[in-house]
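Translate sequence into C-alpha coordinates.
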Amino acid sequence: MASAKGYALNFRACSGATVADVTNTQLSALTTSTAYVTMSVGGNDAGFAGVLTTCAQPSWMSNCMGAIDKAQAYINNTLPTSLSTLYASIRARSPQAKVTIVGYPRIFNGEDCNAFTWFSPTEEARLNQTADLLNAKLAAVAAANGFSFANPSNVFVGHAVCDSAEWINGLSSPISESYHPKVVGHSSGYFPVVSPSVTGSVLRVTPAIRERAAASAARLAAQQRAYAAADRTIVPERFVAPDLTTPAARAAAARAGVDLSSRASIDAADARYAAAQARPYRG
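Result follows.
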Protein backbone atom coordinates (compact mmCIF):
# COMPACT_ATOMS: atom_id res chain seq x y z
CA MET A 1 0.00 0.00 0.00
CA ALA A 2 2.80 2.40 0.85
CA SER A 3 4.50 1.65 -2.46
CA ALA A 4 1.25 2.04 -4.39
CA LYS A 5 0.49 5.45 -2.89
CA GLY A 6 3.95 6.85 -2.18
CA TYR A 7 3.52 6.83 1.59
CA ALA A 8 6.55 6.83 3.90
CA LEU A 9 6.30 3.47 5.69
CA ASN A 10 7.48 2.71 9.21
CA PHE A 11 6.88 -1.03 9.49
CA ARG A 12 6.96 -2.13 13.12
CA ALA A 13 4.98 -5.40 13.07
CA CYS A 14 6.75 -8.28 14.80
CA SER A 15 5.72 -11.93 14.96
CA GLY A 16 4.44 -12.89 18.39
CA ALA A 17 3.63 -9.35 19.51
CA THR A 18 0.97 -8.90 22.18
CA VAL A 19 -0.82 -5.75 23.26
CA ALA A 20 1.92 -5.22 25.86
CA ASP A 21 4.63 -5.61 23.23
CA VAL A 22 2.96 -3.08 20.95
CA THR A 23 2.71 -0.67 23.86
CA ASN A 24 6.27 -1.14 25.05
CA THR A 25 8.21 -1.44 21.79
CA GLN A 26 6.17 -0.22 18.82
CA LEU A 27 4.20 2.89 19.73
CA SER A 28 7.39 4.96 19.48
CA ALA A 29 6.91 4.81 15.70
CA LEU A 30 3.91 7.13 16.01
CA THR A 31 4.10 10.92 15.89
CA THR A 32 1.67 13.79 15.62
CA SER A 33 2.30 13.81 11.86
CA THR A 34 1.45 10.13 11.35
CA ALA A 35 -1.33 9.97 8.77
CA TYR A 36 -2.28 6.27 8.79
CA VAL A 37 -1.95 3.41 11.25
CA THR A 38 -2.76 -0.23 10.55
CA MET A 39 -2.49 -2.84 13.26
CA SER A 40 -3.49 -6.42 13.97
CA VAL A 41 -3.07 -7.53 17.57
CA GLY A 42 -5.02 -9.66 20.04
CA GLY A 43 -4.61 -13.20 18.75
CA ASN A 44 -1.35 -13.75 20.58
CA ASP A 45 -2.85 -12.36 23.79
CA ALA A 46 -5.56 -15.02 23.56
CA GLY A 47 -2.94 -17.76 23.08
CA PHE A 48 -3.44 -18.39 19.36
CA ALA A 49 -0.41 -20.66 18.92
CA GLY A 50 -0.91 -22.57 22.14
CA VAL A 51 -4.56 -23.31 21.41
CA LEU A 52 -3.72 -24.60 17.94
CA THR A 53 -0.88 -26.69 19.37
CA THR A 54 -3.30 -28.31 21.81
CA CYS A 55 -6.05 -28.87 19.26
CA ALA A 56 -3.69 -30.41 16.70
CA GLN A 57 -2.89 -33.27 19.07
CA PRO A 58 -5.00 -36.42 19.29
CA SER A 59 -7.84 -35.85 21.72
CA TRP A 60 -6.71 -38.67 23.98
CA MET A 61 -3.63 -36.60 24.91
CA SER A 62 -5.11 -33.08 24.89
CA ASN A 63 -8.11 -30.96 25.81
CA CYS A 64 -8.84 -28.76 22.81
CA MET A 65 -12.25 -27.66 24.05
CA GLY A 66 -10.79 -26.53 27.36
CA ALA A 67 -8.10 -24.54 25.55
CA ILE A 68 -10.74 -22.86 23.37
CA ASP A 69 -12.89 -22.07 26.41
CA LYS A 70 -9.91 -20.38 28.08
CA ALA A 71 -9.13 -18.33 24.97
CA GLN A 72 -12.76 -17.24 24.57
CA ALA A 73 -12.95 -16.22 28.23
CA TYR A 74 -9.87 -14.06 27.76
CA ILE A 75 -11.29 -12.48 24.61
CA ASN A 76 -14.58 -11.73 26.36
CA ASN A 77 -13.35 -10.62 29.77
CA THR A 78 -9.81 -9.24 29.52
CA LEU A 79 -8.85 -8.29 25.99
CA PRO A 80 -11.36 -5.41 25.47
CA THR A 81 -9.90 -3.40 28.35
CA SER A 82 -6.34 -3.96 27.11
CA LEU A 83 -7.34 -2.90 23.61
CA SER A 84 -9.11 0.21 24.87
CA THR A 85 -5.99 1.33 26.70
CA LEU A 86 -3.80 0.64 23.66
CA TYR A 87 -6.13 2.41 21.24
CA ALA A 88 -6.26 5.46 23.52
CA SER A 89 -2.46 5.58 23.47
CA ILE A 90 -2.45 5.46 19.67
CA ARG A 91 -4.92 8.33 19.48
CA ALA A 92 -2.92 10.38 21.98
CA ARG A 93 0.30 9.96 19.97
CA SER A 94 -1.27 10.45 16.54
CA PRO A 95 -4.45 12.51 17.00
CA GLN A 96 -5.00 13.10 13.27
CA ALA A 97 -4.22 9.58 12.04
CA LYS A 98 -6.69 7.36 10.21
CA VAL A 99 -6.42 4.14 12.25
CA THR A 100 -7.45 0.77 10.84
CA ILE A 101 -7.64 -2.28 13.07
CA VAL A 102 -7.23 -5.48 11.07
CA GLY A 103 -8.99 -8.71 12.02
CA TYR A 104 -8.31 -12.40 11.56
CA PRO A 105 -9.55 -14.91 8.98
CA ARG A 106 -11.23 -18.23 9.78
CA ILE A 107 -8.42 -20.76 9.41
CA PHE A 108 -10.36 -23.97 8.80
CA ASN A 109 -12.98 -25.38 6.42
CA GLY A 110 -14.08 -28.42 8.48
CA GLU A 111 -11.50 -30.79 6.99
CA ASP A 112 -8.05 -31.80 8.23
CA CYS A 113 -5.91 -32.86 5.28
CA ASN A 114 -2.60 -32.80 7.13
CA ALA A 115 -1.28 -36.25 7.94
CA PHE A 116 0.17 -35.36 11.34
CA THR A 117 -2.52 -33.20 12.92
CA TRP A 118 -5.81 -34.28 14.48
CA PHE A 119 -8.29 -31.39 14.20
CA SER A 120 -11.86 -32.68 14.36
CA PRO A 121 -14.68 -30.91 12.48
CA THR A 122 -16.18 -29.72 15.77
CA GLU A 123 -12.82 -28.40 16.94
CA GLU A 124 -12.35 -26.56 13.65
CA ALA A 125 -15.83 -25.07 13.91
CA ARG A 126 -15.16 -23.79 17.42
CA LEU A 127 -11.75 -22.41 16.39
CA ASN A 128 -13.47 -20.51 13.57
CA GLN A 129 -16.08 -19.27 16.04
CA THR A 130 -13.25 -18.01 18.22
CA ALA A 131 -11.85 -16.03 15.28
CA ASP A 132 -15.32 -14.53 14.78
CA LEU A 133 -15.53 -13.67 18.48
CA LEU A 134 -12.12 -12.02 18.39
CA ASN A 135 -13.12 -9.99 15.33
CA ALA A 136 -16.33 -8.89 17.02
CA LYS A 137 -14.44 -7.60 20.05
CA LEU A 138 -11.81 -5.89 17.90
CA ALA A 139 -14.51 -4.22 15.81
CA ALA A 140 -16.46 -3.03 18.85
CA VAL A 141 -13.47 -1.48 20.60
CA ALA A 142 -12.25 0.02 17.34
CA ALA A 143 -15.65 1.66 16.74
CA ALA A 144 -15.72 2.99 20.31
CA ASN A 145 -12.44 4.76 19.62
CA GLY A 146 -13.39 6.09 16.19
CA PHE A 147 -11.17 3.60 14.33
CA SER A 148 -12.01 1.58 11.23
CA PHE A 149 -12.09 -2.21 11.27
CA ALA A 150 -11.03 -4.37 8.32
CA ASN A 151 -12.51 -7.86 8.52
CA PRO A 152 -10.83 -10.45 6.26
CA SER A 153 -13.26 -13.28 7.05
CA ASN A 154 -15.38 -13.13 3.89
CA VAL A 155 -12.55 -12.76 1.41
CA PHE A 156 -10.81 -15.84 2.85
CA VAL A 157 -13.89 -18.05 2.37
CA GLY A 158 -12.83 -20.84 0.02
CA HIS A 159 -9.18 -20.25 0.85
CA ALA A 160 -8.82 -21.80 4.31
CA VAL A 161 -6.42 -24.56 5.27
CA CYS A 162 -7.13 -27.61 3.07
CA ASP A 163 -9.15 -25.65 0.51
CA SER A 164 -8.12 -26.20 -3.10
CA ALA A 165 -6.92 -22.58 -3.34
CA GLU A 166 -5.27 -22.41 0.07
CA TRP A 167 -4.28 -18.91 1.26
CA ILE A 168 -3.35 -20.05 4.78
CA ASN A 169 -0.65 -22.57 5.62
CA GLY A 170 -1.53 -25.78 7.36
CA LEU A 171 1.23 -27.75 9.05
CA SER A 172 4.25 -26.28 7.28
CA SER A 173 8.00 -26.20 7.01
CA PRO A 174 9.33 -24.06 8.57
CA ILE A 175 6.96 -24.81 11.41
CA SER A 176 6.77 -21.10 12.31
CA GLU A 177 4.75 -20.48 9.13
CA SER A 178 2.04 -22.95 10.16
CA TYR A 179 -1.50 -21.49 10.36
CA HIS A 180 -0.40 -18.06 9.10
CA PRO A 181 -1.37 -16.52 5.75
CA LYS A 182 0.72 -17.33 2.71
CA VAL A 183 2.02 -14.58 0.42
CA VAL A 184 -1.15 -14.91 -1.64
CA GLY A 185 -3.19 -14.53 1.55
CA HIS A 186 -1.61 -11.15 2.10
CA SER A 187 -1.70 -9.99 -1.52
CA SER A 188 -5.16 -11.30 -2.49
CA GLY A 189 -6.75 -11.43 0.96
CA TYR A 190 -5.58 -8.69 3.29
CA PHE A 191 -4.43 -6.15 0.68
CA PRO A 192 -7.82 -5.47 -0.95
CA VAL A 193 -9.61 -5.61 2.42
CA VAL A 194 -7.37 -3.15 4.23
CA SER A 195 -6.57 -0.78 1.35
CA PRO A 196 -9.94 1.06 1.26
CA SER A 197 -9.45 2.32 4.82
CA VAL A 198 -5.90 3.47 4.11
CA THR A 199 -6.11 4.69 0.51
CA GLY A 200 -9.80 5.35 -0.09
CA SER A 201 -10.13 2.63 -2.73
CA VAL A 202 -9.72 -1.12 -3.19
CA LEU A 203 -6.20 -1.80 -4.43
CA ARG A 204 -4.90 -4.90 -6.19
CA VAL A 205 -1.28 -5.97 -6.25
CA THR A 206 0.24 -5.33 -9.66
CA PRO A 207 3.73 -6.06 -11.01
CA ALA A 208 4.53 -2.36 -10.81
CA ILE A 209 3.54 -2.20 -7.13
CA ARG A 210 5.60 -5.31 -6.39
CA GLU A 211 8.61 -3.74 -8.13
CA ARG A 212 8.34 -0.51 -6.14
CA ALA A 213 7.91 -2.45 -2.91
CA ALA A 214 10.98 -4.59 -3.64
CA ALA A 215 13.00 -1.46 -4.35
CA SER A 216 12.23 -0.16 -0.86
CA ALA A 217 13.63 -3.25 0.90
CA ALA A 218 17.10 -1.88 1.68
CA ARG A 219 15.71 1.37 3.09
CA LEU A 220 13.19 -0.44 5.28
CA ALA A 221 15.82 -2.90 6.50
CA ALA A 222 18.10 -0.04 7.52
CA GLN A 223 15.19 1.65 9.30
CA GLN A 224 14.31 -1.52 11.19
CA ARG A 225 17.82 -2.01 12.55
CA ALA A 226 17.14 0.80 14.98
CA TYR A 227 14.42 -1.33 16.53
CA ALA A 228 16.30 -4.66 16.55
CA ALA A 229 17.15 -4.65 20.24
CA ALA A 230 13.56 -3.91 21.23
CA ASP A 231 12.18 -6.49 18.83
CA ARG A 232 14.43 -9.18 20.30
CA THR A 233 12.49 -8.85 23.55
CA ILE A 234 9.36 -10.13 21.78
CA VAL A 235 9.16 -13.91 21.97
CA PRO A 236 7.47 -15.34 18.86
CA GLU A 237 4.41 -17.47 19.48
CA ARG A 238 5.13 -20.81 17.85
CA PHE A 239 2.85 -23.64 16.88
CA VAL A 240 4.34 -26.96 17.99
CA ALA A 241 3.58 -30.02 15.86
CA PRO A 242 2.19 -33.08 17.64
CA ASP A 243 4.91 -35.41 18.90
CA LEU A 244 3.69 -38.88 19.90
CA THR A 245 7.15 -40.01 21.00
CA THR A 246 7.36 -37.93 24.18
CA PRO A 247 6.96 -39.48 27.64
CA ALA A 248 3.73 -37.51 28.11
CA ALA A 249 2.33 -38.85 24.82
CA ARG A 250 3.28 -42.41 25.69
CA ALA A 251 1.67 -42.10 29.12
CA ALA A 252 -1.52 -40.68 27.60
CA ALA A 253 -1.57 -43.49 25.03
CA ALA A 254 -1.23 -46.08 27.77
CA ARG A 255 -4.14 -44.55 29.70
CA ALA A 256 -6.28 -44.53 26.57
CA GLY A 257 -5.30 -48.00 25.43
CA VAL A 258 -3.69 -46.66 22.25
CA ASP A 259 -1.17 -48.69 20.28
CA LEU A 260 1.30 -46.05 19.10
CA SER A 261 2.62 -48.38 16.43
CA SER A 262 -0.82 -48.44 14.78
CA ARG A 263 -2.20 -45.36 13.03
CA ALA A 264 -5.62 -47.01 13.05
CA SER A 265 -5.48 -47.30 16.84
CA ILE A 266 -4.33 -43.69 17.21
CA ASP A 267 -7.09 -42.40 14.96
CA ALA A 268 -9.86 -44.54 16.42
CA ALA A 269 -9.10 -43.39 19.94
CA ASP A 270 -8.88 -39.79 18.75
CA ALA A 271 -12.34 -40.04 17.22
CA ARG A 272 -13.80 -41.45 20.44
CA TYR A 273 -12.23 -38.85 22.72
CA ALA A 274 -12.98 -35.96 20.35
CA ALA A 275 -16.64 -36.95 20.22
CA ALA A 276 -16.84 -37.15 24.01
CA GLN A 277 -15.15 -33.77 24.49
CA ALA A 278 -17.37 -32.13 21.86
CA ARG A 279 -20.65 -33.45 23.21
CA PRO A 280 -21.33 -30.53 25.62
CA TYR A 281 -20.83 -28.03 22.77
CA ARG A 282 -23.30 -29.50 20.34
CA GLY A 283 -26.77 -28.02 20.10
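Note: The first helix runs from residue 2 to 5.
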